[in-house]
Write a structure and sequence with these properties.
This protein is α/β, with parallel strands linked by helices and about 400 residues long. It has 15 helices and 15 strands. The radius of gyration is 20 Å and the shape is globular.
Length: about 400
């Protein structure tokens, strides 16, 4: 049996083509809902592309599901998760509800999963080490919350990712400033200008998010990528960050680690929330090497496509449970340290990690390599125009990719 997979994304992250290639390699039929101009549209592994438009997102996803008739929908960003849940809620008597249960797990649990504060409370109740966290519904709730978390603290907005909607605050004035920045709806003019500058109509749909304050835990970032099926953990990879893109941003170089506490947390959380599909857990490793769980990514993450063998190949494990007849075992990553492509190349085309780590270049999907090597100037302009002081710095536009910059093809 061939498993039909629909990837769903509302952003232009490079992970879409990598996950498409992973599912196709194990024998799945892969289609995708992509925003216009998404580089993954060039991938040889996508059988069909379905257009996503920001101002009609729910209708676009509904049309893609109808056309693709997927066995699984794999969301690649948090907004796509919310759309998939809304699609099931719009027609609860249809087959969409069963599709969402196969793709995400227990849909009723996502009210908690999508709440940063609610998720940490549930994790803490399951005996998992987490920082103190407080929901902040009004500005007058902020200072009492800081009394509980202490300073510095981390102010977070639900429904954000990649370092956006997160601010480390060191005193009350910084906390109030960040609160007002996150909690106040921007003017229509500002939203329009940002939508034009960033070529992203989602800025026209800005909603006031739910905010929370977390205890600040000093340390280094770590992550778990996992596959689950009906509350049972199928496979997981635990990795520590070697290089990140800006403070709190996504990783571009990762190192695989063994960590019993992270493994137990993945097992417990999959069971507690009845998870299915691909998910990620974010941690901070403190000075003693102990992991503190800080949030969940309720969707596939940028390392979900990596295979480190049996028990560590998320895509193969999930496809098999969904009823797929796998072609063969996928080739395993040849090292524990991985430089993600194009993330590390875009960060620094002369990075020593491109030679010393396993550089994860998709040589079997050359259109993707060419696209990111010749990334349009608009990408660099859009990043340079970000107003946040903590916006990632990409440096100059990279030169052509050198074949000698990889350790394996």
């Amino acid at each position: 049996m061939t498993v039909n997979v629909l990837l769903a994304t509302t952003v232009r992250w490079p992970s879409a083509s990598r996950i498409a290639g992973a599912f196709a390699t194990v024998g799945c039929h892969v289609e995708a809902m992509l925003p216009p101009g998404h580089p993954a549209g060039l991938s040889r592994y996508l059988a069909q592309n379905h257009r996503y438009r920001a101002l009609a997102g729910l209708n676009c996803l509904g049309a893609a599901v109808t056309a693709a008739e997927p066995d699984l929908v794999v969301p690649l960003d948090d907004r796509a998760v919310a759309l998939l849940l809304a699609l099931a809620a719009r027609a609860p008597a249809s087959g969409t509800t069963a599709l969402v249960e196969r793709s995400l797990g227990n849909a009723r649990a996502y009210e908690t999963v999508l709440s940063r504060n609610g998720f940490l409370a549930a994790a803490h109740a399951n005996g998992i080490r987490t920082p103190t966290s407080c929901a902040v519904h009004r500005e007058e709730d902020l200072l009492p919350a800081l009394e509980q978390t202490g300073l510095p603290a981390v102010l977070k907005a639900d429904g954000t990712w990649g370092g956006d909607g997160v601010a480390i605050v060191h005193d009350r004035d910084e906390a109030l400033s960040a609160w007002r920045r996150f909690a106040q709806r921007p003017s229509m003019l500002r939203s329009l200008l940002r939508a034009i500058r960033r070529a992203d109509a989602h800025f026209l749909l800005h909603a006031v998010p739910t905010l929370s304050v977390q205890q600040y835990v000093p340390g280094t970032a770590a992550t778990t990528s996992l596959a689950a099926w009906k509350g049972r953990l199928l496979a997981a990879n635990h990795m520590e960050a070697v290089i990140t893109r800006g403070a709190g941003g996504p990783c571009s170089v990762l190192r695989r680690i063994d960590n019993a506490a992270m493994g137990e947390a993945a097992l417990q959380l999959a069971a507690h929330f009845g998870l299915s599909g691909l998910h990620g857990l974010d941690y901070v490793m403190d000075r003693e090497g102990e992991p503190w769980l800080v949030e969940i990514n309720p969707r596939a993450t940028q390392s979900s496509h990596l295979s480190f063998g049996p028990g560590h190949d998320l895509v193969a494990a999930l496809a098999s449970k969904a009823g797929g007849s796998l072609r063969s075992a996928r080739e395993c990553v040849a090292a524990d340290t991985v430089a993600l492509f194009p993330q590390e190349f875009l960060r620094d085309a002369a990075s020593p990690w491109l030679k010393s780590a396993y550089h994860d270049v998709p040589w079997d999907d050359l259109a993707m390599v060419r696209n990111w090597v010749t990334a349009p100037e608009a990408i660099w302009r859009a990043e340079a125009d970000k107003p946040s002081k903590s916006a990632p710095s990409y440096g100059p536009r990279p030169p052509a990719l050198r074949t000698g910059s990889t350790t394996s093809r």
